[in-house]
């Protein structure tokens, strides 16, 4: 589970990537990954996170915590925890229902607004 992962940014007018040029080395990561990020995060920007998630070599799920800054607020922790529990049940416990729910769920009830970005889901 990655929460607001730093995968790159702009420093001194140069783009810096954590995993090689344009994060291409992320293709070597083949384990399942769940990423949650805040849409108002000014530290780890979606403009870097989202392309990086497309580079991963294994199952990938991306959750946008709507209107959340870098340090998630209030109910967004509840949402993050619910997604994390679903992800761990699916991949660590081998729960088939949890895996199917993870693949198809759009958001979690309660907490704040959150959206699974299916365009970034990889299986």
Report on the structure:
With 123 residues, the protein is an alpha/beta fold. The chain has one domain: Rossmann fold (3-Layer(aba) Sandwich). The protein contains three helices and six strands. It has a four-stranded mixed beta sheet, sandwiched between helices. Strand 4, helix 1 and strand 5 form a beta-alpha-beta unit. Helix 2 crosses helix 3. It is flat and about 45 Å long. The two termini are 16 Å apart.
What's the structural blueprint in terms of helices and strands?
Layout: E1 2-3, E2 8-11, E3 14-17, E4 33-38, H1 46-55, E5 60-65, H2 75-91, H3 96-104, E6 114-116
Parallel strand pairs: 1-4, 4-5
Antiparallel strand pairs: 2-3, 5-6
The number of domains is: 1
- Straight-line N-to-C gap: 16 Å
The chain-level mean pLDDT equals: 96
Q: Residue ranges: pLDDT <50 for 5 or more in a row?
A: none
> What class do helices, strands and sheet pairing give?
alpha/beta
- Please state the second-level CATH architecture: 3-Layer(aba) Sandwich
Helix content: 25-40%
Strand content: 15-25%
State the CATH topology: Rossmann fold
Element pattern in H and E: EEEEHEHHE
What brief labels describe this structure?
four-stranded mixed β-sheet, two-stranded antiparallel ribbon, alpha/beta, 123 residues, 20% strand, Rossmann fold
Give a short summary of the structure:
This protein has three helices and six strands.
